[in-house]
Amino acid sequence: MKSFLSQALLVTLVATATSFGQTEAKTKPVGYESITLNANQFNIVGLRLQGSTVASGALETIGTSSVTDNEGSFATILSASKTYILEITSGTLSGLTVEATWTSGNVLNTPDNLSAAGVTAGVSYNLRPALTLEEIFGTTSSVLQKGFNVSNADVVWIPNGAGNYDRYFLRSTDNTWRTSGGNAAPNVALVYTDGIMIEKRSNAATLVLSGEVKTGGSTAVVINGFNVISSVYPAGVTLQNFGLDDDVKKGLNASGADIVWVPNGSGNYTRYFLRSTDSTWRLSDGTAAPASVSLTPGIMIERKDVAKTFTFTPPSSYSGL
């Protein structure tokens, strides 16, 4: 997989946006990214560009299955048929992201219990629409091969949070997204901190993503076993600056440590671990890793310990965006 989004492009787009009189607080850097989907292999992809922020403010009430913004005018901007991503942007859990829906009023419905998680009243938030399979990959026209069933189509594997995956394909007879069993699956939402796997059975193709750039920290729950993770930030993110040092389990060697699997573009991976004796990144054979290892859009984290919330940090250059 190759990313063609450069820091220069980000800076250019930000400068363009601010020149039209928008305030710095409301200006969001945007850009595009091209990702190569290699033929006849599993491609790990991270959605590193997001839908634009549609609402922001403060949450006065944190409930067990909902949150409330007393000043929120959601009826004019939200749709009851869409899934949104709620991001906490202040407090001790800044960077936390959860799915949210809206039905009426100034209340957002959250399947996750944010009160139990420790989110407190008064925190600020951003709300953006979750991108769907249709929006990312298309329907009538798509970079993926369609098929009559899952056995002869390209397949999108989405982690379900329990260590398994839900699989989807684009059916050729009616250009609709289907589960691996053939059931209709419209508007399946994707959360940008999750990576996805694309099983490319056909020719190589280029997936072009566009949207808003995340400039703040992010969090994701990493469970025991293999986790497909987005590297979140579309330019400049490395093994050394992604914030992994504070969260991965260190080890004397690769057998006792968490392993970060970085795709090498040929269907294989380069594996890294953080050595406990000196807190240095090492290749799986124990030799020193390069001083700066660029992360592909999607990576895998092999967690050897219990589930833990990992905090991901943007490159320092993002502070000016």
Summarize the structure.
It is built from three helices and 23 strands. It is mainly β and 321 residues long. The strands form six sheets. It has a seven-stranded antiparallel β-sheet, with no helix packed on it. A five-stranded antiparallel β-sheet has the order 2-15-11-12-13, with no helix packed on it.
Q: Strands, helices and their partners?
A:
Layout: H1 7-18, E1 30-37, E2 41-46, E3 55-58, E4 61-62, E5 66-68, E6 84-88, E7 97-102, E8 107-109, H2 114-117, E9 124-129, E10 131-132, H3 133-137, E11 155-159, E12 165-171, E13 176-179, E14 189-190, E15 195-200, E16 205-212, E17 218-222, E18 225-230, E19 259-263, E20 269-275, E21 280-283, E22 298-303, E23 308-312
Antiparallel strand pairs: 1-16, 2-15, 3-9, 4-5, 5-8, 6-7, 6-9, 7-8, 10-14, 11-12, 11-15, 12-13, 17-23, 18-22, 19-20, 19-22, 20-21
